[in-house]
Request: fold
Amino acid sequence: MRRLIATLMFALVLVGPAFAVNPDEELSDPALETRAREISEGIRCLVCQNQDIDNSNAGLAHDLRVLIRERLTKGDTDDEVRQYLVDRYGEFVLLLPRFNWHTWILWMATPIVFLIGAFAIWRGVKRPANLPGTALNEEEERALSSLRDEDA
Reply:
């Protein structure tokens, strides 16, 4: 019986974010509701930080979802709603930052590091086997021969 209760509680924890958008928040117009959902999926919850507001149960996420729906019902476009949130909370509110002069490092760091790593691997594989100083001298050759003879 305890296992059943523990399993049900675990399942409720997993599906909790599915109930983040409350029924009282939803708009009656399905097109506006779809637009609101698309916008809120790209907006960061400022409390949870790595979760979008569409899946967050935080109070601030609720307020932002309501704010998005209010702006849409007033006739704002999707970009105007996003810009309003950026103006109010800063660019951190966007889950996918815009490509600007101050965010170029976020966008370019991964490809640059990948290219450097690929070049390093290519150089390591292409390196010649007969590097100077890697050949055995006579004394080392004799020691190696004696070890081989002992094994045989």
Summary: DSSP finds six helices and no strands in the chain. The longest helix spans residues 104-126.
